[in-house]
Write a structure and sequence with these properties.
The complex is a heterotrimer.
Chain A lengths: L1 H20 L3 E8 L5 H21 L2 E8 L4 H14 L3 E4 L7 H10 L4 E4 L10 E5 L1 H19 L3 E7 L5 H15 L5 E8 L4 H14 L5 E4 L5 H10 L13 E6 L5 H5 L5 E4 L2 H16 L11 E3 L3 E2 L11 H4 L2
Parallel strand pairs in A: 1-2, 1-3, 3-4, 4-5, 5-11, 6-7, 6-8, 8-9, 9-10
Antiparallel strand pairs in A: 10-12
Helix pairs in contact in A: 2-10, 3-4, 5-6, 7-8
Chain B lengths: L8 E10 L2 E11 L4 E6 L5 H8 L7 E6 L2 E3 L4 H6 L2 E4 L11 H6 L5 E2 L2 E2 L1 H14 L15 H13 L5 E5 L7 H16 L3 E5 L3 H7 L2 E6 L2 E7 L5 H9 L18 E10 L3 E9 L3 E5 L6 H8 L7 E7 L4 E3 L2 H7 E5 L13 H6 L15 H15 L15 H14 L4 E5 L7 H16 L3 E5 L3 H7 L2 E6 L2 E7 L4 H21 L1
Parallel strand pairs in B: 3-10, 3-11, 6-9, 9-10, 15-20, 15-21, 18-19, 19-20
Antiparallel strand pairs in B: 1-2, 1-4, 4-5, 7-8, 11-12, 13-14, 13-16, 16-17, 21-22
Helix pairs in contact in B: 8-16, 12-13
Chain C lengths: L1 H39 L6 H26 L7 H19 L3 H24 L5 H20 L4 E2 L2 H7 L2 E2 L2 E2 H19 L1 H11 L1 H7 L3 H27 L1 E2 L7 H11 L11 H22 L5 H25 L5
Antiparallel strand pairs in C: 1-4, 2-3
Classes of the chains: A alpha/beta, B alpha/beta, C mainly alpha.
Amino acid sequence: MKRLQFIAGSMLAATLLAGPVAAKDITVGLSWNSKTQPLESAWEDYMKAEGLRQGKAAGVTINWVVNVANADPARQTANIEDLINKGVNVVVARAEDGAAIGASIRAAKAANIPFITFDRASKTVKPSAHVGGDSYDQAVTTAETFMALLKEKGVTGKCIELQGALTDVNAINRSKGWNDVVAKSGGVLSTIVQVPTEWNPELFRSGMANALKANPTANCAFIASDFAITAVQSAMEAEGKWAPTGNPKHFWLATQDLLPGALPLMEQGYIDVSTTYDAFAHASEAVRVIIALADGKDPGCGPDGCLAKGRVATPANVKTMENLWSRTYK
Amino acid sequence: MNTSASPELAMTGISKTFPGVVALDQAHLSARAGEATAVMGANGAGKSTLMNVLGGVTRPDAGSIELCGTRIDIASPRDAASHGIAFVHQELTMLPTLSVAENIFIDDFPSKGGLIDRAAIHARCQIILDRLGCTISPDRIVGELSTGDRQMIEIARAMRREPRVIIFDEPTSSLTQPEKRRLFAVIESLKRDGAIILYITHFLDEIFEICERVSVMRGGRTVGGGSIETFKPVDIVRLMLGEVDVGTRLKAPLDERQKTVLEVRGLARGTALQDINFDLYVGEVVGLWGLLGAGRTELARALVGLDPIDHGTIRWHDGTALRPISPHALHKLTGFVTEDRRGEGLLLPLSVNDNLALPSLKRFLNPWGLLNRKPQAALADTMIDRLGIKVSSREQSAGTLSGGNQQKVVLGRWLATEPRLFILDEPTRGLDVSAKTEILKLTAELARSGATVLLISSEIDELMRICDRYLVMVRGAITAELPGSASHAELMDALSAPVASHMTQRARA
Amino acid sequence: MNETTNKTALISRGGGLIDLATRFGFPIVLVLMFVALSSSTNSFFTLDNQMSMLHAMAPIVIIASGMALVVMSGKLDISVGSIAFLSVALGSLLIKQAGWHPVAAYTVTLLIGAVLGAVNGFIVVVLKVNPLITTLGTMIAFRGVALQVTNANVIVLPDEVRKFGNLTFGPVFADVLIAALVLVAVHVLHERTSYGRQITAIGNGETIAARIGLPVGRLVFTNFVLCGVLAAFGGIFAAAQVGSVTTFLGQGLEFTAVAVVVVGGISLFGGQGRILGGVALGALTFEMIRNGLNHLGANPYSYKLFGGVVIFIAMYADALKARSRKSPGGG
C-alpha cells in the first residue's frame, strides 16, 4: 500500500516538474477586459476547442490561464502583470482601453513574452501580433454575394446604405467595402442614399423610414451592423416593406455581423445576405498565431494584423453553418 | 376710538438671544384695534426682531402674546397667518411672471375638482382690490406693474385672510409721493374696518400723520410709548437715541475757518437729495448728522459719483483756486471709507502688505514695469506702525484680522495716497469700543495733519467727541448747521425741528 | 419732462419689438422652414411623412414635458436620458429574463423612474446641492448602473412591444396620441392647478416663494419625481419604437430635451413660458430640421450645426427677454 502511494506520488511529482519545462507545452495567459456577454464566452470556448484541435496537429499542449478585469483598465494591467510573473509563454488580451494596454505590452516585451491583442487593437505600443475581424472583407463578401443574388433574380438594386458611426474604423471599412463592390457591379447595384446612424438605433429607425419615404423606388438596403435590426424592421413594417423572400413585397436586405437578434430573421428569409462577425474564425486565427509565436515563428500578419475573415451566410446555408456563436450563445 | 378699552394686542416680556447678541430683552408692545401703532427705534433697537416674533419668523426665548384677550402661540408664519396676523414686508414678495390674482392666492388657491377655480379667484381678488381702491385688473401680469402697484398687491395678499393685525415694515421707502398718499388712504380705511396696524418707519413725520400710538425701542427694550398726542418729535428722537455719556473730546473744536476745500451748490437727485449746499474747510471734521434714511449715505455716494446726480455743482480747491470738478474726478482725490469693508475692496485672502499697497502700486514699479517689493514693504511697515494695526507680520492675510484692524487697513490704504479729503461713512459700525476710539483718534489725527473729513455716524457720542461742525440732514435736505460746541439737546432738537414745524404748518392749515 | 416721456416710450417700443420677435420669431421661422422643405422635396409634404415626424417626436415630447416642469421651477434635470435608459432596461430585463408581462414590467419602469427622480430631488432639496451638478452626477451614475445590469448588451424586445411602439390608428401612431395626452395633462397641471402655479412661483424666486410660505422643498422634490416618471415613460416609447434596448437609449436625450424646452420659449431662468405650445413647437423645430435635411439628402452631420444654431438663437432670445424684464421700461 505504502509502495503504491509512493509510486503514485513520485509520478505526480514528475508530471508537475516536467510540465513547465516540456518543449511541447504552451501556457497561454488570456486576459479578458470583461466577460459578461455571450460573445466573450463564445470566443473563449472556441479558443479552447481550437487549442485542442490545432495543438494536436502541431504536437503541442496548450494550457490556459484566464483572468477577467471587470471592465477596469487598471485591474487589467494588474492582471496581465500577474500573467507575466507566472511566466506564461504567450499573453492574449482583449483590451478594455486601447491606450492603457500599451503599458502591458511593454512589460511583456521586457519579459520577452509575445503579446497578442485580440479584437481591440492597441492605440499606443505595437504588440507582437493583433488578431481581429476583417471588416473590409466582411463588407466585400456580403456585397459580392448580394450582387450575384440580385443578378440571378434579375433585379436592379437601388440600395439604401445605413452607415455606422463615421468615427469608427469598422464602419468606414464596411462602407468602403460595400461601395467598392457597388462601383464594379456594372449597374446591378447602386447606393441611392447614405444614412449615417452614429450606431444609434433611433437613427436606424428614423433614417430608414425617411430614406424609404424619400426614395420610393429603393428596393434594397445594406446595413452596417444588424445589432439594431429591430429598428430597421419597425421602419420597414411601417412602410409595408417587411416581407420574407419569395413574397412580391420583399425588400432585399444585406447586413453585417449576423448577431443573435438577426439570425432568426435570416432563417425566416427577411435578411438575404450577411457576413458573420465570426467568433469562431477569430478564435481559430488567435490559436494559430499563438502556436506560431510560441515557436518563435512569424505568424505572417498583414499590415493591420492577422485578420480573420467572416463567413457569408444566406438563408440557404445558415441553418447548416457550424460553430455559429449567434445560434449557440444567446 | 376705543382708547379706554384694554389693548387688543399685547406682547409682554419678549426676550430673544441670538448667539452673542441680546436682540430682545423683556420687550413689550400693545396696540389697539382701529389704530395704527408706530414701532420706532434706531438700527439694531430690536423692532424687526419683535415684528418677526409676531409674524412667526422668529421664536422668542420668553414672553407671551395675547390677541383679543386670548394667549396665542405663534410657531411659524403659517400660525401667524391663521391667527390673522399679516406681514407686509419691506422687500416685496411679488412673483413677476404670474397674474395679480395668482399672486394674491398663490399659497392657498380655491380649487374645484383639482383645478384652480379661476372665476372664484378673479371675483374674490376684485373684491379685495376694490376695497383697497385699486383699479388694477386681476388678470394683469405683475411684472408689468410699477413698484407702488406691486405694493398694493402685496397689501391685497395680506388682506386676503381678513387679518386682524397688519404689520407694515417701512412701506414708503421706495414709493413716490402719490403712491405714498394712496398707501396712507388705504391704511386709514383699514383702521376704519377695525384692524390693528403696526407701522415701522424711519420717517418721523409719517407717524405723526397716520399713527395714533407710538412705541419706542432701544437696545432690545421698550423704552417708552403711548398716545402719539403726548409726544413731540424731539421726545421720540431722544427715546430712540437715548441719553449718552459723551466722554471727553478727542479734539477741541476749531475756532476759526481756514481755506475752502470743497464747495457744493444745488446738488439734487430725485427725492433722495434736495438742493444740498455746503462748504468744507481745510483741517476740519464735519459731522453729517441725521437719522437712518435721511440721505446721508446717498449724499456721500453722490459726491464721489457712485450715484448719478440730477443737478448741482461741486468745486474743488486744486491748490490755486476753486474749480468745478466732476464727482468721478473727486472720487480719485478722496479717501472713501464705509462700514462695508469688503465692498470697498479689501481683498481678504491677500496680505496686509498687498492690501495697503493696492491704490499706490504705480509708485513701486521699476522701469521694466515690475513691482519693487522693498519700498512697498517699507510703506506697509510705516502704515502698520502709524495706525497701530495688530498683525503678526505684514504678510498676514487681511481676512484673519479683526474688524477694527481691517478698517485700519482700509484707512491706511488711503493714507498712502495722501488725499486731502476723507469721506467716512459709518467707519466704526460693528467695531468694539476700543477699536472705535482708535478709529476716531486716527480721524482726529488726519484733520490735524491738514486733511478735511466728512464723517457720517449714527452714534451721536462719536460725533460729539471729534466734530468741529455739524450738518443736519432730514429727508434728503440739509436743514441746519450747528457749531462743534452744540449740546446733545441741540443736536436732538435739530432732527425733530423740521418735523415739528411741518406739523404746526399743517395744524394751521 | 417731455424728454423722459419720450425715453420711456422708446424703451417700451424697443421692448415691444423684442417681445414680438421672441414671441413669434420661432413660429415664423418654423413656417418658413416648412414651406421651403415642402416645395423643395416631393416627399416631405406628405401625410405619411408628417405622421412619421410626429411619431419620431413622441418620446422626446413626453420627456421634455417633465423637463419643462423642472425648468419652470428654475431648476434643471440633465439625468433624464439616463433615467430613461436605466428604468427601461430594468423593466425590459423583467420581460426577457423573468418572463413578466410587458404591462406589469413597464409599470415597474415608471416606479423606477419615480425612485430615480426622488434620488435627484433628495440630493437637491435635502443635501442642497446645485441641480445641475446633482443631475450631472446622477446622469453618469444611472447610466453606469444601467450598463452594469445590461452588460452593455442589446436587449431585443418581444414583438408585441415593438408592434405596440409602431401601432397606428388610421394614419396616426398610438404613441403620438399618448404623447399629446401627456403634454396636455402637463400643460393643465402647470396652468390650472395650485401645484403648477406654485412651482412657477418658485421659478420666480425661491426665497420669495419661501417667504410667502410655499412648501418649496416638497414642491421641488415632487417636481423631480414627476420628471423622472415622465423620463421613464418617454423611454419606454423610445425603446418600443426601435424594438430593443441598447446602450444608446437616452444618450444625448437630456440635451435635446433642454433644447426643446428653450426653443419653446420656456425660460431657463424659470417661471416663464407655456408648456403646451412651447414643447410642441420646440420638438417640432428639431424634428423638422432632422427630417427635412434627411429628405433634402443633405449631409446629415449638418443637422448638428443647424440644431446648434437654433439652440443658440433661442438662448440669446431668452437672455434678451430676461434683460427686458429687468429693465425699468417694463413698468
